[in-house]
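TEACHING EXERCISE
Course module: macromolecular assemblies
Task: Read the component lines below, then compare them to the predicted structure of the full complex.
Student: A.B.
Group: 4
Components provided:
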Amino acid sequence: MIQRYDPYGEGFLANLSRIQQRLAKASQQASSGLRVSAPSDAPEDVTDIVRLRSKIDQTAQVRQNLESVKAEADGAEGALQAAVKLIEKAIVNASEGAGSVSASRRPALATEARSILEQLVGISRTTVDGRYVFSGDSANSPSYELDGNSGTGVAQLQTAAATRLVVSTHGSSFTTAQTAGELFDAREANGDPAPDNVFAAVNNLRLALEQNDGDAIAASLTALRQAHDHLSDGLSFYGNLQERLSTEITTATNYEDQCRIWLGEKRDADLAAASVELAQLQTNQSAALTVQSKLPWSSLFDYLK
Amino acid sequence: MSNLFASLNTASNAILVLQNAIGTTQNNVTNASTPGFAKQRQALEAARFDLPAGYNGGVRDGGLLDSRSRLAEQAVRTQREALGAASQQATTLSVMEGEFDISGNSGILRGMNRLFESFSDWSAKPGDTSARRSVLDSAKDLADSFQTTAGNLSEVSRNLDLDVAQTLEQINAWGAKIQTLNLQKQNGGADDAGLEAQTYAALEELSKLVNFSTLYQEDGTVSVLIGGQYPLVMGGGSQALQSSVSSAGGSGSFTAAMIRDANGNEITGAIQGGKLGGLLAARNGDLAALSGAGGELDRLAQAVSDRVNEILAAGGGAPLFVYDTGGGAGIANSLRVNPALGTAGLVAQETGPPAVSNGICLKLAALADSTGQRDKIDGLSFVEFYGSMASGVGRSLQEATGSVDLHTDLAAQATALRSGISGVSLDEEAVYLLELQRAYQANARMVTVVNDLTQEILNLVGA
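Instructor-supplied answer key:
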């Protein structure tokens, strides 16, 4: 067969190549699930995609931070609950000691008061994930230890303030803790123990009971009630902190989910449409090849004798 | 007065002319697929017929008619030039696009996200050694990402230089080929259709490599002017092009590629088409914008590292990042973590007032999406600026790909049009051959008839 020259062959090849490129693209979308996997797929969406990707990572980290701080807050709140109960126990003991009791009872009450003080010091050294939650910015070391020679019954090991802030999803920041000094060792401006100093109140009760001093026991009862109110304020702080952290964690979770939805809208492929296009392009390619193969390739020379 | 012998002579001359015409048709059929060939026709002219005056008429050879259209040829070359440039740009940009991962799973974007995450994690545990170590590790990852990207783009630049050199060799080789053909034409081959076909085929191949204009001389030779100005071939002489790489100045590692003519004149700006035009546009345009001195990559590396260092310094801390400012290494290519900085040297506290134990960490973490002007480049956050870099490469690639599609179609159209004007149609040649065959048969029959008549007369005379 003497083939005739086809001047339109170059155009056919170009169109076939175009179909094959679109086939490859549709196949890649269907297999990866992504409409935009490279910048040239949709240049106008690239900046939004990278920003959302970064936002998702950033929000996830913020949520982790909030959850970490909440764990500390939960631990602190639980410890303070126990501290409040101890003070209530001390108040009961002080009330008993201030009343008509046998001579042998007050030493026993003094022993209980000492035990309460020891437990309060232990509470001031509460840790969560290796961090002393009441040690302020020096979270790697405790703030107090027992000291029988001290007027408050404890020795202060460090005085770091609690200045650490935590940031929410939308950028607002708030404090995350109170120190053991603020909660258990309130002081006047001149450094003397304040009337609601928890350590001082319990220690004074212990001393009064040991000395069998009824007036001192009565005085410590007043201080213990003030200390109870002070600890309740601290408990309220941590309760509010827990609530706020829960709210912020929920906000972060919701925002992270929303960012993922937005990212999906920008980046993900419509799998149904990609599958349909893939089938259509395969049909187009097959049709183009079939038609091209049926074109007459003979010339008049084939018929000349 | 006419006689039988005159008629015999006329018929035999016609047979010779028809033989030439058949030979021309045979040549067309033989060269139907020869690159650059344009079909030819033997012109048939009627001779003067005036028997009383002694003109016996007949047909004479009017010479070869060439169907080549220089306009159609130029149209094809123009589209080849545009297609060559767009194809090369698309190829180069496709490689560059691979350096910009927008998924966040690798590269600079992942490095930045991880660094900002490490700052945020550190803010929750400002005194924690492992959190500080994570900051240093993330900073190293980011610096490595910048170095890797800068290094890969430098590799792209080196490969483009090699491509430029190879393309110039090809251009000079085609120039030498055209020169050789010109010399053959000057030595008596001016009417040689074969030389003409080779010349146009060479010009079309050259148009895929570089843009040029042609000047046709009276002696049949063709002169080639690169960019319409700078001679590559002038008659029987050729002037080779050469390339060079010059420093763009500053501290960038990028250098511009230049093309010079045989006299040393720089002609880079005149080269806009063909593969060479695409190489230069990618090399000196797209790549320079990214990785040249003051390019976007260096700007991003410098902005991120300087701002981080500035925030750390506000807390009395040592810089986290260092880079070379001289020696041509480029900022992105030399960015690294301060080797003198350990975990203990990372300052978390903002002294205030009020003092905040994790204030520095929080400011560093806020760089991920800061609204402060000092934390932006051209009004964009660092992540958005990276996105704009990737978007720019993507847009250029999309445009180049579109241009490839467009000029592919236009080149196909121009080729089809040229084929319609000067291409060989076997059907057409077959029909013409039939005509010539019939004419040949008729003249052969005329010879036979005249011969019989002559023999009859001779018989009469002999009787």
